[in-house]
Specification:
Shape: elongated
Low-confidence stretches: 1-14, 262-276, 577-581, 671-677
Helix content: 55-70%
Distance between the termini: 97 Å
Radius of gyration: 49 Å
Structural class: mainly alpha
Mean pLDDT: 79
Strand content: under 5%
Number of strands: 0
Largest sheet: none
């Protein structure tokens, strides 16, 4: 038993589980379906062959029998010859009697058939026997074929039928049924050649000339048969074969395995005897292996297919299959790229024109609405796929296709909303391919213009007709950047001096056209996509195709970007309640904004300002502040506050208000406490804060901005040293930190710089004493900023979006675990009390924000231990940073009143957090009194 058979042996004592067999019915049904098609096709081909064999064998046997009726007589004595011999003897006897002489009768002659007669009859009788044997076996094969199909179809259960199919098929292979079927025509062919050989032997004693003709005819047939036998051995795609071809092919493979090469081989590839077991398998491998011959065959097949598709109904399925051939679910498929490009460039096929005609047929009114929609989508997807196949790196742009006519048609015939998702992406690819096809010609045109310029400088008049003809071409009409090129048409036609200067300007205009047009195509795609409610067809793949690998200077396309971005943002409908990027408009704007990369700070485009004002912090953090654009925004806000945004569409005062609120939106994005968030050095925030402080602090927006920017600036002091922070004021001497402090700072720390660290931000355990002191100073400064913000809230003055601003300030404060100067304590307590006494509902929300922050976390932690009086006070996790008795009392009083105000029928008890904070204040304050610390 072979290793495979041993591996596949059924384990002993494995019970048959009917439920498992039934569960596998669908699996076996697939096998039955495929096996039934194969077996029926095989058996039907056998039956058809046998019917032909029976007809031929019958006709041949009848003809051969007629010849045998005449030829077998030459094997026995002829009665006529015997009669002539007897009469001759009688005549001789009578003559002797008349003469009186004695007559001696001759001895009887023994009959022996001639050699030619023997050979002829032997060959013909053998031929007849083989022919009848062939007919018998053919009849049996037909019976066996019918019996095979009958046995396979006896049962209805899929898994039983599958096993019967398998059992019977491998029985066919075991008993060499295929060989038996191949022997039948071999017997019949042998019978025919025996007949021809016997015919020559039959005619030889009769007439040499006729026998010679028969021999030549037989030789020709044998030679033709030999050639038909060997041709498939030499060329596997030869349609001719005989039953002996397979045998000779096997012999040739045996010799090839010995001599390591095949003596008769196709010119397309080398044979590999070890990889093929049958002639059919060798043919299949030869047909599918990669070669120049296969490429030519495939292309001819596709070319014939396109030519044979006469009407739109037949042509539509072919067009529908193009996207799957060229593109996978994510990436391009390169196998058929060359075929499609060659088909598109074949002038006899006019494939582009036919796709356009198919698209135009949607407006004929002869199709139903569903069929019209399906055909439009089919055409747009096909055009997207074909135009998206751009030359790979290293290949010339000449391989790109020119779709000028199709672009003109799509621009004039705007599709409905149901197919707009497809047309937007298709048009972007068509424009991009058309531009790529123009690039090589533009480069050649520039070279020609350089020569013309040299001729003009030499005093000659260059021939500019070729240039003028191209400037009139319709391809340029697709791109707005071509308008500048059109302006030179009249100048070069008039050929007015100085012509060399005009040619130089035209060269510069062509080079600028080559730089700006890709951005125009890309930005137009963004604008077209912004009007959709969801992604256009294959959004990511389209962006990969029309991406610009080597970005130009921002000055080359900055105006185009700012204008396009403004139009996109104006078309968008934003919802500030969205907590994730679910709106496709956000994706479009985010992708658009990534191309805003000026080399130096410039006024921020009005479109970005509008976007910042209409999205919430979560979405803006995901879209804008994860890459270089965040740094660009912070660096550009000072000049934007001074000069207003670019592309103004409203009075300067209104735009300036939008800039302030946009800066507030940017400042509130994700607190910088998590180390995973991008952090900037103080050099980024200082100019922004200085620009904001130049405005009057009486403005609600400016007041909120001041507090938030100071908070960010204080946080940035923890950043490591970099090129922008070297040589600046040491962190502990930075003016943003409070001058009066309760923290004792060692003198050696005052001039120290922050060193690079793998971790930036607030640490549970600072890596060194300097960081510990710096963190304490920063926490103190941030609590002071909260106190400053609360101190600014008055009945007649409410800061801009006070709740969110205070939440940002509080969320950025870690748990205080060090001294806080009494100035901040007093100011903090007064601010909380003033907010509470105002009685406004919005101010109550501000109090709730402060109570839930980590500012009161030490007292909350301490209050939780009231239930465990045996725990020593010094083991509490709380720290009494409110050491000013007056400030602490005012806060306690305010919290008690606030807790009573919260009691209602729906909430009859004081919130647990306020109870714990009050308990912690009482406990830690007692500790402060005990140790004698003010």
């Amino acid at each position: 038993m072979s290793g495979v058979e041993a591996t596949l042996q059924m384990p002993e004592r494995t019970p048959m589980d009917p439920s498992k067999e039934a569960a596998a019915s669908k699996l076996w049904a697939v096998y039955v379906s495929e096996a039934e098609k194969y077996d029926k096709s095989l058996v039907e081909s056998w039956k058809s062959d046998m019917e032909g064999m029976l007809i031929f064998a019958g006709l041949f046997s009848a003809s051969l029998t007629a010849f045998l009726i005449e030829s077998y007589k030459t094997l026995v004595p002829d009665s006529g010859d015997s009669t002539v011999q007897i009469l001759t003897q009688i005549s001789q006897q009578l003559a002797a009697a008349a003469n009186g002489s004695t007559f001696e009768p001759p001895a009887p002659i023994h009959f022996t058939p001639s050699t030619s007669s023997f050979i002829c009859n032997a060959l013909w009788f053998l031929s007849l026997g083989l022919s009848l044997t062939c007919a018998l076996i053919a009849t049996l094969v037909e019976q066996w074929a019918r019996d095979f199909l009958h046995k396979a179809d006896m049962r209805s259960s899929p898994f039983i039928r599958a096993r019967i199919f398998s059992y019977l098929y491998y029985g066919l292979k075991r008993f060499k049924m295929h060989t038996v079927v191949d022997i039948i025509p071999l017997l019949l062919h042998t019978s025919l050649f025996l007949f021809l050989a016997g015919l020559v032997a039959f005619l030889l004693p009769i007439n040499i000339s006729i026998a010679t003709v028969a021999a030549v005819l037989s030789a020709v047939m044998v030679a033709a048969y030999t050639l038909l036998t060997m041709l498939p051995v030499w060329f596997l795609n030869c349609p001719y074969r005989t039953p002996l071809s397979t045998a000779f092919w096997g012999i040739s493979q045996t010799f090839a395995s010995i001599w390591l090469r095949t003596p008769f081989q196709d010119s397309e590839s080398q044979a590999d005897p070890s990889s093929k077991s049958t002639m059919v398998e060798a043919m299949s491998q030869r047909a599918t292996e990669k070669s120049a011959g296969r490429f030519l065959r495939d292309y001819r097949a596709l070319e014939w297919t396109v030519k044979s598709l006469a009407d739109d109904t037949e042509f539509e399925p072919f067009v529908e299959g193009l996207p799957d051939v060229l593109w996978g679910p994510v990436y391009r498929r390169y196998g058929y790229e060359d075929y499609i490009h060659k088909l598109m460039r074949n002038p006899d096929l006019r494939l582009q024109h036919r796709i356009e005609s198919l698209l135009r047929s949607c407006d004929s009114g002869l199709l139903s609405l569903e069929a019209t929609k399906r055909r439009r989508i089919t055409c747009y997807k096909a055009l997207w796929a074909i135009a998206g196949v751009q030359p790979r790196p290293g290949f010339s742009d000449d391989q790109s296709l020119d779709f000028t006519l199709l672009c003109d048609f799509l621009l004039l015939h705007k599709p409905g909303l149901e197919v707009l998702h497809y047309s937007v992406s298709a048009l972007a690819h068509l424009r991009w391919s058309t531009f790529r096809s123009m690039k090589s010609y533009l480069a050649t045109l520039v070279e020609y213009l350089v020569q013309c310029k040299a001729e003009a400088e030499a005093g000659h008049t260059p021939n500019l007709k070729r240039v003028a003809a191209y400037l009139r071409s319709s391809s340029l009409d697709l791109f707005p950047a071509s308008s500048r090129l059109r302006n030179y048409l009249s100048k070069i036609t008039a050929a007015s001096p100085p012509l060399s200067l005009i040619i130089l300007e035209l060269i510069q205009a062509i080079e600028e056209f080559g730089i700006t047009t890709p951005y125009q195509i890309l930005f137009q795609y963004f604008e077209d996509s912004a009007q959709l409610q969801s992604e256009p067809y294959r959004w990511d793949s389209t962006l990969n195709v029309i991406s610009i690998p080597n970005p130009a200077d921002y000055s080359a396309f900055g105006n185009m970007l700012e204008a396009g971005l403004g139009r996109v943002v104006n078309r968008c409908h934003f919802s500030d309640s969205s907590e994730v990027v679910t709106n496709f408009n956000d994706i479009v704007v985010d992708t658009f904004c990534r191309y805003w990369r000026p080399d130096e700070p410039v006024p921020i485009p009005h479109g970005i300002i509008t976007y910042l004002n209409n999205r919430n912090a979560v979405v803006l953090n995901q879209l804008l502040c994860t890459e270089r654009i965040g740094l660009l925004l912070w660096s550009s806000f000072p000049i934007t506050l001074s000069h207003g945004p670019s592309s103004p569409q409203a009075p300067h005062s209104i735009l300036l208000d939008e800039v302030k609120t946009a800066l507030w939106s940017l400042a509130r994005i994700t607190p910088t406490l998590p180390t995973s968030v991008i952090r900037y050095s103080p050099a980024i925030y200082e100019p922004v804060l200085a620009a904001v402080e130049a405005f009057s602090n009486t403005s609600p927006v400016i007041f909120s901005l001041n507090c938030m920017l100071k908070s960010r600036l204080v946080d940035s002091l923890l950043c490591g040293s970099d090129s922008s922070s070297r040589g600046r004021v040491p962190p502990l001497r930075h003016p943003s930190l409070p001058t009066a402090t309760a923290i004792v700072v060692p003198p050696e720390f005052l001039e120290a710089q922050v060193v690079d660290s793998p971790e930036s931000g607030f640490l549970e355990e600072p890596v060194d004493p300097f960081h510990r002191v710096l963190q304490c100073r920063i926490i103190e400064a941030k609590i002071g900023l909260v106190a400053e913000f609360l101190d600014g809230i008055r009945p007649d003055f409410i800061p801009y979006r006070a709740g969110e601003t205070l939440r940002y300030l509080c969320d950025n404060i870690p748990t205080p675990r060090s001294e806080i100067h009494e100035t901040h304590q007093t100011r903090f307590a007064s601010g909380i009390r003033r907010v509470f006494e105002s009685g406004k509902p919005d101010n109550m929300n501000l109090l709730d924000t402060i109570i839930k922050s980590e500012i009161f976390e030490p007292y909350f932690d301490a209050g939780l231990y009231q239930v465990a009086p045996d725990v020593p006070v010094n083991s509490h996790s709380g720290y009494a940073w409110l050491q000013d008795l007056s400030a602490c009392s005012r806060i306690q009083e305010m919290l008690e009143k606030y807790s009573k105000a919260l009691i209602s029928p729906d909430a009859p008890s004081v919130p647990a957090r306020i109870q714990a904070i009050l308990a912690g204040l009482e406990l830690l304050q007692t500790t402060v009194d005990t140790v004698g610390v003010k």
